[in-house]
Design goal:
By secondary structure, the chain is α+β, with helices and mostly antiparallel strands. It has helices at residues 28-35, 90-97, 107-120, 126-133, 143-162, and strands at 6-12, 15-22, 54-57, 60-63, 76-78. The radius of gyration is 18 Å and the shape is globular. 36% of the residues are buried.
Length: 174
């Protein structure tokens, strides 16, 4: 029996990338790490329970260890490397300001889940934060600081959404 190899093209952090001669059953996690050079996505458990491998698939947080590369042709992936541009994302800055990381292993997945939450719900309650982050485990137990960082990022994001920049606004004619 001959193994079937496909060409899969993904948009990774805004750039198209083709994966050729890769087993279509390869988990996205390994395609990202071993073939696309995205080292921010981590292997934690391999069964989707710890959240270390969290990336965005078409804007939604998902576990890269549970997705096969062959099922993702044409889809958009955002990793921790693509979360922000020239400056830190507000969640990343809040992580630093709140001294969240200890060992750091889970941080990329935690940040991707937190940023996804705030994209959809810019002012979450404690219960909503806990529900959104329940699938991300932290071996060091920094959950109180994680929640504080999410609240801080929420405040920054909410405040910046209220800021009106007349220079970047186009005038609309009636």
């Amino acid at each position: 029996m001959t193994e079937v190899m496909l060409v899969t093209t993904l948009e990774i952090n805004g750039q198209n990338q083709s994966f050729e001669d890769i087993d279509p059953s390869m988990p996205l996690l390994w395609a990202l790490r071993d073939h696309a050079g995205m080292q921010g996505v981590k292997y934690g458990c391999g069964v989707g329970q710890c959240g270390a491998c969290t990336v965005w698939l078409d804007g939604f947080a998902t576990r890269a260890c549970q997705l096969t590369i062959g099922a993702l042709d044409g889809r958009s992936i955002t990793t921790i490397e693509g979360l922000s541009g020239d400056t830190l994302h507000p969640v990343q800055q809040a992580w630093i300001d709140n001294d969240v990381a200890q060992c750091g292993y889970c941080q990329a997945g935690q940040i991707m889940s937190a940023a996804s939450l705030l994209e959809r719900n810019p002012n979450p309650t404690d219960d909503e934060i806990e529900a959104a982050m329940a699938g991300n485990l932290c071996r060091c137990g920094t959950y109180v600081r994680i929640k504080s960082a999410i609240k801080a990022a929420s405040s920054v994001m909410t405040a910046s959404a209220l800021f009106y920049n007349a220079v970047q606004t186009e005038e609309v004619s009636a």
